[in-house]
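Agenda item 2: zinc ion complex prediction
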Amino acid sequence: MIDFLKNMPKAELHIHIEGSLEPDLMFEIARRNQISLPYANEKEVRNAYQFNDLQSFLDIYYKGANVLKTKQDFYDMTWAYLARCHDQNIVHTELFFDPQTHMDHGVDFDVIINGISRALEDGKKAFNITSYLVLCFLRHLSAESAMKTLVRAIDYKQHIIGVGLDSSEMGHPPEKFINVFERALKEGFLTVAHAGEEGPAEYIWQALDLLHVKRIDHGIRCMEDPDLTMRLIEEQVPLTVCPLSNVKLNVFDEIKAHNILELLDKNLKVTVNSDDPAYFGGYLNENYIVLYNELGMDKGQAVRLAKNSFESSFLPLKDKLKQVNILENYADESE
Ligand code: ADE
Ligand code: ZN
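Presented output:
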């Protein structure tokens, strides 16, 4: 079963590219940019990765992201992630990036987007991995700052398929960003939002009704509201769930307590994702494997999750159908 999961073709829809920055590359980039890190070595970095909640993670994550200064830095980080995708049979990925984190430290939008996009183009050529980029606004910052970032992104539309909302959820409801998302939709960007990770079900309603999102990132708290759960089922709104992340950030005490398979069995459109793999102890395959080892996920459930990952992607319909077909053949051949 573990080999079946590893070799299964799959898509990833919830990965913060800055969250894929492994300690060894973080040190190498810090060294070449002459930035001192608050850690003596990689082991100390890993020891620091003990989190109580989302905020305690974000505090460390933003420090790590601050080593990134040049186009080459963004390229190298993205390339390292794509090499992992290739190893893990991830054939399509939709990546978040957080431009405000970098622009607030003097890095130009152009540097960020060109570094990441160039790596994605090379990933298509070298590995045949398709990808889209989603710009996330940091919800702890103001709506004005998000709007300025959106306006900057308009010139780069050919590289960015959509916009999202991440960072500290509590106290920063989706409604804070109504105007920004309205403008984004007018400009032709698709929309997504983190909601119902630490925040209440009400934030999921807001993301749907006020920000008109195509997917909810996390969304695992939806089950606290039966009407909301019903709506998510009826409309087949995808949830990009991140099991290892949820345990690391204490959203669930342990994988055994995670509700992902319950959501799947209720016919919610659930997908599996890694969120910030360098920080949470695993990439996409490790997330699938832990669901098998600890929640007893069976083959049928694994294939449904992978199928959902393609169907919930922003790929054109013909590409979705093609990928689902390849997946179904793979599952049949393994019988
Ligand atoms: N930024 C990176 N990872 C995040 C997460 N899991 N939730 C909110 N913001 C994030
Ligand atoms: Zn996330």
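Discussion summary: Residues 2-333 form a domain with the TIM Barrel fold (CATH 3.20.20.140).
Owner for follow-up: CH.
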